[in-house]
Design goal:
Layout: H1 3-8, E1 29-30, E2 40-42, E3 51-54, E4 57-60, E5 66-71, E6 80-91, E7 96-102, E8 105-113, E9 118-122, E10 136-137, E11 145-153, E12 156-161, E13 164-170, E14 190-194, E15 196-207
Antiparallel strand pairs: 1-15, 2-5, 3-4, 4-15, 5-14, 6-11, 6-15, 7-8, 7-14, 8-9, 9-10, 11-12, 12-13
């Protein structure tokens, strides 16, 4: 079913489907041209759903487990941030699992997992997003766009959903890793959903100045 048809079935979705206003901040580089998967590949998750571009979005169709895309270029390992808009079109689990490098390791920012509402980082000291200090429970609506930002800097992982800061975790002395399993196929930088049809748009990245210049970019 086409994305437009799916959105038409969701109450109040028409007002959410237009393109977002540009962000008045410098340094962002777009990673999605709105038309093709140039720079990306479909992640080879077992039983993944179809992935296609439509109406300025990437649509991850519901699979038996994970469906996602992986960036084919080399991402930075530190002092950068990723931003995108994501929507749960249909399903009841995470519609954005954002996997990124953190120095010589990786982690995932999970949005809407464990039945649809858990947010957090997987994993810190072997504890996933439902168990560690970053875990939060939030309400997410089908058919609504959420602006998601993840920032990786020296000694800290921060994340926002819309204007709310939902993760602020010091990483010194902590073991950062991915949850064991297929999500490792998202490395080094990928976006996935779990048994959920998701739509993604406005995917972008910018590098951050280390330490001294960081506050100016907040």
């Amino acid at each position: 079913m086409l994305l437009a048809a799916l959105l038409a079935l969701l109450p109040g979705c028409a007002s959410q489907s237009s393109a977002p206003a540009p962000i008045a901040e410098a340094g962002w580089v777009s990673l999605f041209d709105g038309r093709t998967l140039a720079g990306w590949k479909v992640t080879d998750f077992p039983g993944h759903g179809a992935v296609h571009c439509e109406s300025g979005t990437v649509v991850l169709d519901k699979g038996t487990r994970l469906t996602g895309i992986t960036w084919t270029n080399e991402p930075p390992e530190q002092n950068y941030e990723i931003e995108l808009e994501a929507m749960r079109v249909a399903g009841s689990d995470f519609f954005c699992g954002l996997t990124v490098p953190v120095n010589d390791s990786f982690c995932s920012f999970i949005v809407g997992g464990w039945g649809g509402s858990v947010v957090g980082i997987s994993s810190l000291d072997g504890l996933d997003a439902s168990e560690n200090e970053t875990s939060k429970v939030l309400d997410f609506q089908e058919g609504k766009w959420y602006r998601i930002r993840l920032r990786i800097t020296e000694g800290r992982i921060e994340a926002w959903i819309d204007q709310e800061k939902v993760v602020d975790a010091a990483t010194a002395g902590k073991r950062i890793s991915l949850r064991r399993g297929d999500i490792e196929l998202s490395k080094p930088f990928g976006i996935a959903s779990w048994q959920t049809t998701a739509a993604l748009r406005e995917i972008k990245m910018r590098r951050m100045k280390a330490e001294a210049g960081l506050e100016k970019q907040r």
